[in-house]
Amino acid sequence: MKANQTVKVNHKELVKWVLDMAKMCNPDRIVWIDGSQKQKKELEREAFKTGELIQLNQKLLPGCIYHRTAVNDVARTEHLTFICTPDKEEAGPTNNWMSPEEGYARAGAIFKNSMIGRTMYVIPFSMGPINSEFSKIGVELTDSIYVVLNMLIMTRAGDKVLRFLGEKGQFTKCLHGKAERDINKRLILHFPNDNTIWSVGSGYGGNVLLGKKCLSLRIASFLGKHEGWLAEHMLIIGIEDKSGKTTYIAAAFPSACGKTNLAMLIPPEGLKKKGYKVWTVGDDIAWMRVKQDGSLWAINPESGFFGVLPGTNTKTNANAIATMQRNTIYTNVLLKEDGTVWWEGADGPVPERGVDWTGKPWTPYLKDENGAPVKGANPNSRFTAPIKQCPTASPLLDSPEGVPISALVFGGRRARLAPLIYESFNWQHGVFTGSIMASEITAAQYGAQGTVRRDPMAMIPFCGYNMGDYFAHWLKIGKELKNKPGIFHVNWFRTDADGRFLWPGFGDNLRVLEWIIKRCDGQVNAQKTPIGYVPLKEDIDLEGLEIDKKDMEELLKVDKSEWKSEVEDIKNFYDKFGTRMPAELLEELDALKKRLEQPDN
Length: 601
Ligand code: SAT
Ligand code: MN
Fold this sequence. Notes:
Layout: E1 2-4, H1 12-25, E2 29-32, H2 37-50, E3 54-55, E4 65-67, E5 81-84, H3 88-91, E6 96-98, H4 100-111, E7 119-127, E8 136-142, H5 145-154, E9 156-157, H6 159-165, E10 172-177, E11 187-191, E12 196-200, H7 205-208, H8 211-227, E13 230-232, E14 234-240, E15 246-252, H9 259-263, E16 277-282, E17 286-290, E18 296-299, E19 304-308, H10 314-323, E20 329-331, E21 334-335, E22 341-342, E23 354-355, E24 361-362, E25 382-386, E26 403-411, E27 421-423, H11 427-435, E28 438-440, E29 452-454, H12 467-480, E30 486-490, H13 510-520, E31 526-529, E32 532-535, H14 549-555, H15 560-575, H16 583-597
Parallel strand pairs: 1-2, 2-7, 4-20, 5-6, 5-11, 8-10, 10-12, 15-26, 26-30
Antiparallel strand pairs: 3-4, 7-8, 7-9, 11-12, 13-17, 14-15, 14-16, 17-18, 18-26, 19-25, 20-25, 21-22, 23-24, 27-30, 28-29, 31-32
Helix pairs in contact: 11-12, 11-16, 15-16
The chain binds sulfoacetic acid and manganese (II) ion (MN).
């Protein structure tokens, strides 16, 4: 086995682990990723040769490349994702569980000799700015150049991380192998007690970019519980007002519910004259801790976006479009004849032909066996691009201090029930509000799209330990906070009886964020309802927006009878956690039930 190494690695545990894993996987070569442009270009060239990657039109999309995953490998496979702890209770009722022995044995059998004829790349990476108290180091071993190139965008990677790690620094051991990319030999395993992740048999982002969901959410949530901080599935946005004051908001939504769009929204006409500026800190993950000043501070541990493409265009998200014009990896979209790309809902005319995400010739007239148009891009097709290329990238992206959070927002995709916006009464009620989140399933997960599932804090697929304990951890963090952020719930997806969206969404969501900021600053009153505070109609600035008065009323309505049946559903969900369910949240459920039974006054 040959190995390159630009810096000497003095970390004995790291070297031993790399060699142990290499012994199992049996690659022909080991290559350490140094983070240089030169090495990146070499890897790209190699992948162009094998067809793993395709170079896009360098005049129109400089530095951009294209990749297709296997047809059965286009989303996270939650049913093949496990938390491996000695005790099943630790993983809790919302996670798949396997014992560590079984996990290592089953995945080990698939890894065995799986890298013969391949190269094992060693990627030292930092989640968060190197040297920040928030940050964590990982090392990912992988036999995929696609993974290496994505990790170079999504994380801070290379020699600088090794240098920081020194001889004894702690790191998460992340092993990925494509193996046969067979769904029957696919496992995504987390060993929180060993600070280890093993992912085998997939090539899809969320399963294989191990710094992302696996480390930054599943392992990090476990570490956060033990170390006293929060790892959350949240975007972070800063909104600067005319006076120059920036308010930071962190918001949790399930995958493919518009986090990326919200994180880089463009103020709508009508609000523009108020002089708001939006700063994007992150679109997917927030690591938050209580600092000495008693406030909640946050960083985005990632340095790139891995965003959904279908529906993204200059109208829905001009900042995302600007971000992905260079140095971007496009996955599972339509490849056009001119070496550019297209997806359903992209700008410009629908191309007359191209090669679709499965590699087949495509025209817009093709129909599948049910007569439905064949899609050029997979519904979960993605772009990977550096955050710094975003026109609204926050100047504080690399700040080791992070940003102070004034409000936390939970949101789901609900056609009914949840109003456009409501505010929790206090922290405990806010944790309750997060814990009862539910959302319709989207293309980012395997599963029946559109069915509602409970997804507390948008963390159902990502909490690395028993969620009952996770709720308790949230309550505990609240006790440590002197300046508690307000906690809100939004729903951009409410529809009328005909399925028409009542709220325009996208940039107009700033109208709702503005109300949140006003509430945090104590500038406006609100109407108390059984579920929380709802805006007075006149306090949401609708200037420049044509919206029916009735629609607005519907959007802010709290339907008691719908909520009463929701309470039953929540109760059933809570029951799953047995004695691990914090009493405070059961009390909140009870109190909600009582409020719903009170007659209107
Ligand atoms: O899981 S991914 O990282 O592929 C995307 C998502 O679900 O947020
Ligand atoms: Mn996500």
